[in-house]
Write a structure and sequence with these properties.
eight-stranded mixed sheet, Rossmann fold, 3 domains
């Protein structure tokens, strides 16, 4: 069976089991398998009433919800191609992607969004609200359309960090293979199960990794809780009480920084136990002896501090899953110390979201795990990661030239620089297109240095390096931070770097890089060219100033 048939089969066999729920106003709204099935049927009837045919595209433009899930499944069940887009993205960018994929229908989450689409695209195809899709209860009670492994099921647009977003076509075969891999890894994490997995999710399901998690939950019969208010994540997390959740590094960094800050403010015995326990744990983790004194502090910290922190984060959590960007090794170690393994995954939309996954019982901090069984990975020119396997997309929508540029002999050129250790665990160094080549001729990956600086300035928000064809590197920083604090942080960071990687100048911007001001992509990555252009005069001023060692 393909993934869609598996989901239909799972829902039919457990009609009364809750499968998807939403957090709403301090409570939870739940949908059982039968509820989701009825909603899918209603959406399929709506699509047919509007002349929707196999192979047609349908845009899904709405926040996470049970209805979003039902609509997505219905589009694919009718043999159509779902095109999920990020509702918070600038409307002119959304319209550009919609024009590119030529949808037969557009489904919007609310009236204001529909009005914006119509304003920017008067010739748009029929545009309906999800309220209209699910207005009727009577639906189509049929098995999904027959799909071959080569049939496209979705087009997910890339973030467009250095140009126009491209539509990544994923097939039924791509998704079926990937869900087999994710289920196998989660079986290793959860072991024999007497109850369904409880999963919490706050990231937009229009992105590939989140979508794969959603489909994985549906094939496993898990109970997936969808967040509806990012300002209430802590409360929603308590309501969901999950076994695991998918994260981006920035949230885990905030949890770590907030925890350490609270302990520091509390001071006294709690801070002393925490610091001495952490020092002993890090010695043990690095293979050193803790000694009797260290063992005492470690045991005390595990009982009185680490366990308390872990229970506050999530009493049922067995692991935190992290993807989308490299996670700082120190942060991964922090959660491991608390007894919460952080399992990293790596992949691109073009690889059906995932290529590598940490094994739950064999984690190497700072790395993203081994290649999924059935997937080949190797290093090419400039240590570029090349990937081949059943997860590789067939191409970009209507872009044969761009497709040919990244696919050769079945191998995908990822554009990522990487390294692999002796046992096959991969690490991601940075993006090749982001390499800074100063006048010295060195190839410098900015991401590791940016992360070092960001961690050295807790009050800062973002750090982006510049310096192509310049004599030295410089940084643009955002946040309410003082120049002297940046100066001190750069002194500490530079001391650990070779001379050609040292940052000699900087500019502080009170305004952060955001999606709304056009400096971040929809999934939160820097639009480096746009940032460089926005701060062109400030960058020139940095390099006009006399060079000095920060």
């Amino acid at each position: 069976m393909n993934f869609l048939e598996t989901i239909f089969d799972r829902l039919a066999k457990s009609p009364g089991d809750p499968v998807v729920q939403e957090t709403r106003d301090g409570g939870i709204e739940s949908a059982a398998s039968s509820d989701l099935g009825r909603m899918m049927g209603a959406a399929r009837r709506f699509l047919r009433q509007h002349g929707f045919e196999k192979g047609a595209r349908c845009v899904l433009l709405a926040p996470n919800s049970i209805r979003w899930t039902a609509a997505d499944l219905a589009i694919m069940a009718e043999g159509g191609i779902a095109v999920p887009l990020y509702a918070r993205q600038a409307v002119h960018e959304l319209v550009g992607m919609m024009k590119d994929c030529s949808p037969a229908l557009i489904l919007c989450g609310d009236e204001s969004l529909r009005a914006s689409v119509r304003e920017h695209w008067p010739e748009a195809p029929p545009t309906s609200l999800l309220d209209e899709v699910f207005f009727q209860d009577a639906g189509i009670e049929e098995q999904p359309a027959k799909l071959s492994d080569q049939d496209p099921v979705t087009i997910i647009y890339t973030s467009g960090t250095s140009g126009e977003p491209k539509g990544v076509v994923l097939t039924a075969g791509n998704v079926t293979f990937m869900l087999g891999a994710t289920n196998a890894r989660l079986d290793q994490l959860m072991g024999p199960r007497s109850v369904p997995d409880q999963v919490f999710h706050y990231l937009p399901t229009c992105f590939a990794g989140s979508w794969i998690l959603l489909l994985t939950c549906l094939t496993r019969g898990s109970l997936l809780t969808l967040s509806t208010d990012l300002t209430k994540l802590a409360d929603e997390l308590k309501l969901a009480s999950p076994h695991y959740m998918l994260n981006v590094p920035v949230l885990l960094e905030r949890i770590r920084a907030g925890t350490e800050d609270q302990i520091a403010k509390k001071g006294g015995a709690a801070q002393k136990i925490f610091e001495k326990g952490r020092a002993a744990w890090l010695r043990r983790e690095s293979g050193q002896s803790t000694g009797l004194v260290g063992s005492f502090w470690l045991a005390l910290a595990e009982r009185m501090v680490f366990r308390v922190i872990r229970m506050k984060i999530g009493p049922n959590l067995r692991a935190l899953i992290c993807g989308s960007a490299p996670l700082a090794k120190e942060t991964q170690l922090f959660f491991m110390m608390l007894g919460l393994p952080v399992l990293q995954v790596y992949g691109l939309t073009e690889t059906t979201a995932i290529c590598t996954m940490d094994h739950p019982h064999h984690v190497t901090p700072g790395r993203v795990g081994p290649a999924i069984p059935g997937i080949e990975m190797r290093l090419g020119e400039n240590d570029e990661i090349l990937i081949r396997g059943p997860n590789i997309f067939p191409g970009y929508w209507n872009r044969p030239t761009e497709t040919q540029a990244v696919l050769a002999d079945g191998w995908l050129r990822t554009g990522d620089q990487g390294e692999v250790d002796s046992v096959g665990n991969w690490a991601i160094v940075g993006r090749i297109k982001n390499l800074i080549i100063p006048a010295s001729g060195h190839n410098i990956a900015p991401e590791p240095i940016e992360e070092m600086i960001r961690r050295a300035i807790p009050a800062g928000n973002q750090v982006m390096l510049v310096g192509n064809e310049r004599s030295t590197l410089a940084a643009i920083l955002t946040g309410d931070i003082r120049r002297e604090d940046v100066q001190a942080a750069l002194e500490r960071v530079n001391a650990a770097l070779p001379h050609y990687k040292r940052v000699r100048g900087f500019h502080i911007s009170a305004e952060p890089f955001t999606i709304e001001n056009g400096l971040l992509t929809a999934n939160g990555k820097f639009k480096r060219a746009a940032i460089t252009e926005r701060y062109r005069e400030e960058i020139e001023e940095i390099y006009r100033a006399p060079a000095r060692e920060p």
